[in-house]
Design brief:
The protein is mainly beta. The chain folds into two domains: about 1-15 and about 165-295, no CATH class; about 25-155, no CATH class. The protein has two helices and 19 strands. An eight-stranded antiparallel beta barrel has the order 2-3-4-5-7-8-11-12. A four-stranded mixed β-sheet has the order 1-19-16-17, with no helix packed on it. Strand 2 and strand 3 (about 40) form a beta hairpin. The two termini are about 40 Å apart.
């Protein structure tokens, strides 16, 4: 087999903005469980159920034994992108940096505050399949398990909005976090690094830091062309596809279906190996990496 020539490329991908539903929770996988309060239904009545967000959560969980449990105070965070949990008008459960790690406070009128934290309970949303794991804690009711061997709590989507009225495709919380205002021009490039603000959002990179952009940092192949290894800058709040083609003149980019969705490594870079038969059979092969906003 001939050795193959590899070219490093990068493409910032885009996924359609999800529409806010009454609840994002899967109807068949909607239950959490607490030994002292029994089953808790995050789908609720389908209208008032939990909404798992890229920035923060909203909506309600229903327990037949303790009633409604609110995941937020019902309004957007004071700063626009996360709840401080320091006042009666600014509390709720946050998605920490969009990574699926949940932290903050929920509230039930009949049981008081419920804590989501990353030291002990570590409640987490799997960004690939939407399944929740870990525990939330109530001083009055003890631990509440978000998944068990009996039932799985799962979200069908992760709400990325709300979006501003300009049609920019940029979520208001993300605009507020980085710019302190809304209606930002998605095509602007304030750092001059060649990547637009919209591309920075999709990639999970900082639009105000020129050195922060999605790119392949290393590419290697065995002499026989049996495997290729790619390393690229990554963010824990994003997922990735590796795309390939055998030349840049004819044909089209195709997603490597063997790899499928690639979850990021905990470190600022992700490395993956592409093996035969995806690598072999061509004297040249080109690769690029596509970032996507998680939306299970």
């Amino acid at each position: 087999m001939k050795a193959i020539t590899l070219t490093m490329m990068v493409l910032l991908g885009w996924v359609a903005s999800p529409v806010l539903a009454a609840t994002t929770i899967d109807t068949n996988n909607a239950y959490a469980y607490g030994a002292n309060i029994g089953w808790c239904n995050a789908y609720a009545d389908g209208t008032n159920g939990a909404v798992i967000g890229q920035f923060y959560c909203t909506g309600y969980i229903w327990s037949a034994n303790v009633g409604w449990i609110a995941l937020s105070d019902g309004s957007a965070p004071t700063n626009g992108w996360f709840y401080y949990n320091d006042s009666a008008t600014d509390w709720g459960v946050n998605d920490v940096n969009g990574t699926g790690q949940l932290a903050g406070m929920a509230y039930g009128a009949n049981i008081g505050w419920i804590t989501f934290e990353q030291s002990f309970g570590k409640p987490t949303v799997n960004l690939v399949n939407g399944q929740l794991s870990g525990y939330a804690y109530s001083a009055n009711c003890g631990w509440i398990s978000l998944s068990s061997t009996v039932a799985v709590l799962q979200t069908d989507s992760i709400f990325s909005g709300p979006f501003d009225a300009s049609g920019s495709g940029l979520p208001i919380p993300w605009e507020m976090e980085y710019f302190g205002t809304t209606n930002i021009n998605p095509n602007a490039d304030p750092t001059g690094n060649g990547f637009t603000i919209l591309q920075d959002y999709v990639a999970g990179t900082d639009p105000l830091i020129a050195s922060d952009f999605l790119h392949i940092t290393a590419i290697n192949a065995t002499n026989t062309g049996n495997t290729a290894t790619l390393t690229w800058t990554s963010h824990p709040s994003r997922l990735y596809y590796v795309e390939e083609r055998t030349n840049l003149v004819t044909g089209a980019w195709a997603t490597n279906t063997t790899l499928g969705i690639v979850a990021p490594s905990p470190s600022p870079a992700t490395t993956t190996t592409i093996g035969a038969p995806d690598v072999g059979g061509a004297t040249s092969r080109f690769y690029r990496v596509q970032a996507i906003v998680p939306n299970p």
